[in-house]
Design a protein that fits this description.
This protein is of the alpha/beta class. The protein has two domains: 78-93 and 128-143 and 150-170 and 181-482, Glycogen Phosphorylase B (Rossmann fold, 3-Layer(aba) Sandwich), CATH 3.40.50.2000; 557-798, Rossmann fold (3-Layer(aba) Sandwich). The chain has 34 helices and 24 strands. The strands form six sheets. Strands 7-10-11-4-1-12-13-17-18 form a nine-stranded mixed β-sheet, with helices on both faces. The protein is globular and about 95 Å long. The protein binds ligand CRA. Ligand CRA binds next to helix 7.
């Protein structure tokens, strides 16, 4: 069309779509423009929230022009792209991050200050985008930041839930859940693409037909269909023009009303069908590391993978390439087993709709997909019951059975006459009813399988995927240690420390090459530097103390040692062990003379985290923490020597305040249970020391920062099995200190002991699955070492600096680069700033 335009029209477009300048005057105009037009407000009736909206809209304009430019240039160049399929993207707030990444933060600060507002207050008006449960979803967000920063052509695909992770309030010490309707006010960080709509089928039956060459073809005739509508979320890179995309799908009814029912006067039924369609993307499942097995969850997974694949295939087809080129243009990463149906859907599209033969299609599929495993916990392994699956996806079930048949035939050929092996490796578990093992399907349909930390990746090779390693060989099973983005988790959340690092290193290059932090190690001998370093930590603690006052009503001293455990509440993460040790500490202090108390290191123990709404024991742990806090915090015999707080509604934006303020944080899972952990990396990056077990990424953090700068305790992963066995069959007695603590609870020191009985019985001999009793003594000792070390403030400050200095490895830039080079085979493509909107 454009070609037909006269030159003056073309020139006019070019002139008018020139990018606006980013000077203060232009930015102020754009903000005021949004206040007076988009928001229909005026200076005299504006609050911080309106200011936030206007600044957000002005930021969004700039974001979208970069996004548009990036996507336009990428369409033309058409390099190989990676698609990151994740049911969760835990993005948190966007505005501060977008301004920092685009290099506009300083200008916006000044612009709004002159307009009578303060950026820090304005930022607080933004609600978190909380479309994730914890580590897995936040990892996806960090990876998107790094992919954009490193100029990799990458898209995320996910679901646009109407309700994110629930909001947690504490009532009488108990967790209560409230819906997170985050879209209550318009979401400026998304671009509704109402023009992009895809039909997704469910149910129905499969027609078998002979085509004109006598080949049997299968044709799925779904009974229902829903529409997938695209919402695009721009992800700007740091210090680059590149701006990637996360496409989130929303479900809508195909036609608003089922016209037949409507015309027959059955209005209710016609509305019900519409509601059922909308339900698919209504809510995020609030389980972390556990599988609920609900039909609606399976619908979400198919809806999302089918829409995403349709989109990916459509983009590929525009290039008019051969199907065999598909894996040279497209890499798809499966973030856990949640998107495994994408493997089946691509096989179906290629065989049923594109008429490829099975083997050619399967080769394309397996070259395209790679799979990340995030857990070894049995309760998290996804399985779907065959009857339920068949009802929703009859053709996909046939394809899974065929994939399994051909796979098992090959296994049988390689290892003849081993029924046990076939049973163990089969994608179908022979239970009543049969179950589809999604992890096996993901392994069989991918060319690479990775774990998320060195220990985890080696564990999966000897446990859940052992037979597959024997069959495929070692090369298919690799490690990609997790990472976190230093932009959000240091530069944005700890601006003072970021500034000190930049000043010390002489440039801000470390923000894109985190290994440069090692330059800080030379400064440990510089007393003036140490003083600045610790003053920043203290300022961050003051800020956290204010948040604690506001949210918990408890006054804490920023001079005490801040001890933090914030993460999902889970038995394997052992918050229970932490609070039991706090009770031990409380009892010890109570038994002291005044003279003895004088040498006690004051400590504030800070907890935070959500429990899955159906996880009874985890919710009791929250109750116990709050009951202990209530007693300890008002005990005059203890005073400031010990305070305990539970910060409600832990989320990304709260983490941004907590992480920079910790002196010590706790990563104390039973060895072999935490795949990686990522908050451990964030704390150490901010000069916080950690106490932890030899689990997940703690092992590699220890390797990097050295044993003098970390407090390690407890049993090792290879010992766990024997310990459990000994406990069960040889009746190992409970640790005496722990016994004392339990007696105190049972005597009613903290509310009615009946409440906590179910919790305590998880510790009775033979049942203590997470080995709290086995690790308790060494845990107490490690905590005493923390106290002693913290008293030597000079030494502590050196440790703190060395922690930050040696965190280079844990940038998500490093992780993403490894994925790109060793799994996806993609190259950076840098967008040129052509000066257009
Ligand atoms: N719950 C692991 O438990 C890991 C993250 C990201 C988890 C964490 O140790 O850091 O993934 N596993 O790799 C998971 O979600 C389904 O499994 C997590 O966040």
């Amino acid at each position: 069309e454009k070609a037909k335009w006269p030159k003056e029209t073309v020139d006019l477009w070019a002139k008018l779509s020139k990018k606006e300048a980013n000077d203060i005057d232009t930015i102020q105009r754009s903000i005021v423009h949004h206040v007076t037009t988009t928001l229909a407000r005026a200076a005299y009736n504006m609050d911080n929230f309106t200011a936030y909206q206007a600044v957000a809209l002005s930021t969004r304009d700039r974001l979208i022009s970069r996004w548009n430019e990036t996507q336009g240039q990428l369409s033309k160049a058409d390099p190989k792209r990676v698609y990151y399929l994740s049911l969760e993207f835990l993005l948190g707030r966007s505005m501060d991050n977008a301004l920092l990444n685009m290099g506009l933060k300083g200008t916006y600060d000044k612009s709004i200050e002159k307009l009578g507002f303060n950026m820090e207050d304005v930022i607080e008006s933004e609600v978190d985008a909380a479309l994730g449960n914890g580590g897995l979803g936040r990892l996806a967000a960090c990876y998107m930041d790094s992919l954009a920063t490193l100029d990799y052509p990458a898209w995320g695909y996910g679901l646009r839930y109407n309700y994110g992770i629930f909001q947690q309030r504490i009532v009488d010490g108990y967790q209560t859940e409230y819906p997170d309707y985050w879209l209550n006010f318009d979401n400026p960080w998304e671009l509704p693409r109402l023009d992009i709509s895809i039909q997704i089928g469910f149910g129905g039956h499969v027609q078998t037909i002979q085509d004109e060459y006598g080949v049997t073809r299968h044709n799925w005739v779904p009974a229902q269909s829903v529409q997938a509508i695209a919402y695009d979320v721009p992800i700007p890179g740091y210090d680059t023009e590149n701006c990637n995309n996360i496409r989130l799908w929303r479900s809508k009814p195909t036609r608003v009303f089922d016209l037949t029912s409507f015309n027959e006067g059955n209005y209710e039924k016609s509305v019900e069908d519409a509601t059922n369609a909308e339900k698919i993307t209504s809510v995020l499942y609030p389980n972390d590391n556990t599988m609920a097995g609900k039909e609606l969850r399976l619908k979400q997974q198919y809806f999302w993978t089918a829409a995403s694949l349709h989109d990916i295939v459509r983009r590929f087809k525009k290039s008019m390439r051969e199907w065999s080129d598909f894996p040279d243009q497209v890499a798809i990463q499966l973030n856990d087993t949640h998107p495994t149906l994408a493997i089946v859907e691509l096989q179906r599209l290629l065989v049923d709709e594109e008429m490829l033969n099975w083997d050619d299609a399967w080769e394309i599929v397996t070259k395209t997909f790679a799979f990340t495993n995030h857990t070894v916990l049995p309760e998290a392994m996804e399985k779907w019951s065959v009857p339920m699956f068949e009802y929703l996806l009859p053709r996909h079930l046939q394809i899974i059975f065929d994939i399994n048949l051909f796979f098992l035939q090959k296994v049988e050929k390689k290892v003849p006459n081993d029924r046990g092996l076939l049973n163990r490796m089969s994608i179908i578990e022979e239970a009543q009813p049969q179950q589809i093992r999604m992890a096996h399907l993901a392994v069989v349909g991918s060319h690479k399988v990775n774990g998320v930390a060195a220990l985890h990746s080696s564990l999966i090779k000897t446990t859940i995927f052992k037979d597959f390693v024997d069959y495929y060989g070692e090369e298919k099973f690799i490690n990609k240690t997790n990472g976190v983005t230093p932009r959000r988790w240091l530069h944005q959340s700890n601006p003072q420390l970021s500034a000190l690092i930049t000043e010390t290193l002489g440039s801000d290059k470390w923000l894109k090459d985190l290994s440069l932090l090692k330059g800080l190690a030379a400064k440990t001998g510089d007393a003036a530097f140490r003083k600045k370093w610790m003053a920043i930590k203290r300022a961050n603690k003051v800020r956290l103390a204010e948040l604690i006052k506001e949210r918990c009503g408890v006054e804490v001293s920023p001079d005490a040692l801040f001890d933090v455990q914030v993460k999902r509440i889970h038995e394997y993460k052992r918050q229970f062990m932490n609070i039991l040790s706090v009770i031990h500490r409380y009892r010890t202090i109570k038994s002291m003379t005044a003279a003895q108390k004088a040498s006690v290191q004051p400590r504030v123990v800070i907890f935070g985290g959500k429990a899955a709404p159906g996880y009874y024991i985890a919710k009791l742990v929250i109750k116990l923490i709050n009951s202990v806090a209530a007693v300890v915090n008002q005990d005059p015999a203890v005073g400031d020597l010990l305070k305990v707080v539970f910060i409600p509604d832990y989320n990304v934006s709260v983490a941004e305040v907590i992480v920079p303020a910790s002196d010590i944080s706790q990563h104390i899972s039973t060895a072999g249970t935490e795949a990686s952990g990522t908050s451990n990396m964030k704390f150490v990056l901010n000069g916080g020391l950690i106490i932890g077990t030899l689990d997940g990424a703690n092992v590699e953090i220890l390797e990097e920062i050295g044993e003098d700068n970390i407090f390690i305790f407890g049993c090792m992963a290879h010992e766990v099995e024997d310990l459990r066995h000994a406990q069960r069959y040889r009746g190992v007695p409970m640790d005496p200190a722990l016994q004392g603590v339990i007696s105190a609870i049972e005597k009613g020191t903290f509310e009615d002991p009946k409440i906590f009985q179910p919790l305590i019985s998880t510790l009775t001999v033979g049942k203590d699955f997470y080995l709290i009793s086995a690790d308790f003594a060494s845990y107490i000792t490690a905590n005493q070492q923390v106290d002693a070390a913290y008293k030597k403030q000079d030494e502590w400050s050196k440790k703190s600096i060395l922690c930050t200095a040696h965190m280079g490895k844990f940038s998500s830039d490093r992780s993403v680069k490894e994925y790109a080079e060793e799994i996806w085979n993609i190259k950076p493509y840098s967008v040129k700033d052509e000066g257009y909107m």
